[in-house]
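Lab notebook page, bench 4
Experiment: in silico fold of construct C2
Operator: M.H.
Input chain length: 244 residues
Purpose: comparison with the prior construct
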Amino acid sequence: MSRFRRWLGRLTGTHIFRTLPRGIDLSADLARWLPGFTAGVVFDVGAHHGQSAEQFLRWFPAARVLCFEPVPESFALLSQKLAGENRVRCFQLALGARPGHGVIRREGTPDRYAIEEVPGADLPGVVISIETVDRFCVREGIDRISLLKIDTEGHDLAVLEGAEGLLARQAVDLIQVEAGWHPNNRSHVPVETFKTHLEGRGYLLFGVYQQVGEWPTDEPHLRRADLVFVSGELIRRERGGRPS
């Protein structure tokens, strides 16, 4: 079979992989490197129109998926798309570093926005509620998150700061964030910041996904990518409790 694969590769000018390289498909990487991992609760923070939620439902057939989307138009489409999924709950809510309220500010395109914290809800504009992951989990009786996916247009670190209690006891197995890869990218938290924050809490980088180049200027360097971190606790569970 390998001889045929080499022959076909030479004939077509392509390379045929026996398995996908790491960093292409998170589901495949989890199955290969963390085969004992089973997702119970998935948080989709910044769920937009439900694209990631639909993917999580396919990947994790036993999981509950909780979607968080504060933008009213996006939340309406999200709720409509996932209305028939009994494993999904949708919350029109922003998650951040502290509870409170915020005003949504559009930034150029319909799909890009920022949330500016405000002292109260009696203000003009689209005012949304902000909650922390820790407080939400206490309220809902959730003691562990299998996958915490965050895509909040540059607010990803604030979401992690609001999950300090869970992170301190490594009650989140996997964390996915969107990171900036050069100092001129002001729209995303730098990769170095995420590594410092999460490695200090016992999390290690599992993989890099969805690499995007510097599309605004068409320059060759990397602009952003998704980082997935794995908890030391999950690694120990996979190793049967043996020390790493």
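Observations: Residues 20-91+134-238 form a domain with the Rossmann fold fold (CATH 3.40.50.150). Residues 78 and 94 are 14 Å apart (CA to CA).
Next step: discuss at group meeting.
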